[in-house]
Amino acid sequence: DVADGLFKVSVSPLALKRVSEAHSYVQKLIEEERVVYGVTTGFGSLSSKMVSKNDAEKLQRNLVRSHSAGVGERLPERLVRAAMLLRLNTLLKGHSGASPETVSLLAEVLNRNIVPVVPEHGSLGASGDLAPLAQVALCLMGEGVVTHRGQEKSASQAFAEERLKPITLGAKEGLALINGTQMTTAGACIGIVEARRLIESFELASALTIQALGSRTDFLDERIHLARGIEGQTLSARSLREKLSASECTNRSNRVQEAYSIRCIPQVHGAAREAISFSEKIVTAEVNAATDNPLLFPADDAVLSGGNFHAQPIAMVLDLLLIATLPIGNLSERRVERLLNPTFSGLPPFLTNKSGLNSGYMVSQYTAASILAENRVLAHPASVDTASVSAGQEDHASMGFTAAKKLLRAIDNLWYVAAVEALCASQAVDLAGVADGLSPATREAYKQIRSRVPTLIEDEPIGPQIEEVKQILRSIATTRGR
């Protein structure tokens, strides 16, 4: 909700106290002229280069400016805001050394909806999301480009309009702002939320299909799913039973059992639910973790260099989420085949009464198949890749942010596949003449679809219809998700 700009953030006094203690500890380290990575040394393979305490502030400014090396299309504002929130949460752990003023400004920039323009390319997911997060730090310095009040402008202009004062980075603050997994983790958070909504939407679309085809529903009997004992499967079966409750359209088929694309919905969707639950456990830990380097432990007078910035755990669950959601789309496309093919549906070919003269929804299946082909390419794991950079000092990478971008692309694709099924199922409901017998849970969705996409009588452009239904499904899922 913060990522979507629906809620503002506030920082508790206790959290600010932790921040202040860590910041004071950094000042102590400088006064004692202790050798601390990124405070009195250079970065990466330059860590053996000592930096005078008189250059502590310049070191941090140079870090942020030099690491603002991203290129390409801008990332979605939702993703950037989520990353800013997660970075704020990390700083509040009191292991980073940022000043209370810097932390407060980051919170205020979020609340004023000043969003840094962050290019999509630049992160290896090791030593954190350096290039993307550097753009956020650059914004706090009053530099770079942002979006604000619906316009793109300089950060300095946005700050002036909001009467905010940019920060002058102190010792370790640049490193504290950019050294972490927050852009990757933001992608994982959004991906998990969207994946849950997608499953609900596919189950809604499949419930419409089941009723349009008059399918048997004994495959949803709770005893079947309890006999296997996989919670996700049981939940999906229950979800479908609820969506089909009080329907007068099911069990019209004379088939002994349904095809896998219908009968195995709980098993396939349930596997995705299990993957999401596992991923959520890992991501929740990462959201609440201190992920920069070095970490400060003021109470122990300790500065420890480690690798919490390495996004391997998140990269792997991002890959898992993409792989887990792909079969849901594959199953949906096979149900579309059963709707369009008169051999399976008993309805007019391609769901048009004037087939031959009209092609009906024939090519909507092509669209779904094309999208799923792209998703199968995207499903190649990013986390098996790596890179060696910084003169061999940083000699392994997770490619976590690549995994995040792939997942978000694939999920957006899947909304279209769900829309194709819901659109075709609604047309099939009309042609089968069973609209009045739909279950209460699906009747409302059907009515929303028909309020914006009337029954197809003559051929017309189908793409805009798919776009409309996609928005309807997203709206329904978002409303239920809250």
Automatic annotation (TrEMBL):
Q: Which InterPro entries match?
A: Aromatic_Lyase (IPR001106), Fumarase/histidase_N (IPR024083), HutH (IPR005921), L-Aspartase-like (IPR008948), Phe/His_NH3-lyase_AS (IPR022313)
The catalytic activity, as recorded, is:
L-histidine = trans-urocanate + NH4(+)
Among the GO molecular function terms of this UniProt record, one is: histidine ammonia-lyase activity
Pfam families per UniProt? Lyase_aromatic (PF00221)
Compartments it resides in: Cytoplasm
A Gene Ontology biological process annotation?
L-histidine catabolic process to glutamate and formate
Keywords noted in UniProt: Histidine metabolism, Lyase
Q: What class of enzyme is it?
A: lyase
Pathway, according to UniProt?
Amino-acid degradation; L-histidine degradation into L-glutamate; N-formimidoyl-L-glutamate from L-histidine: step 1/3
Q: Which PROSITE patterns match?
A: PAL_HISTIDASE (PS00488)
List the CDD domains: PAL-HAL
Instruction: State which Enzyme Commission number(s) the record gives.
Output: 4.3.1.3
Which Gene Ontology cellular-component terms appear in the entry?
Answer: cytoplasm
Its primary localisation, in coarse terms, equals cytoplasm
Top-level taxon of origin: Archaea
Q: Which family is this sequence assigned to?
A: Belongs to the PAL/histidase family.
Per its record, how is this protein called by name?
Answer: Histidine ammonia-lyase
Classification from the root reads: Archaea, Candidatus Marsarchaeota, Candidatus Marsarchaeota group 2
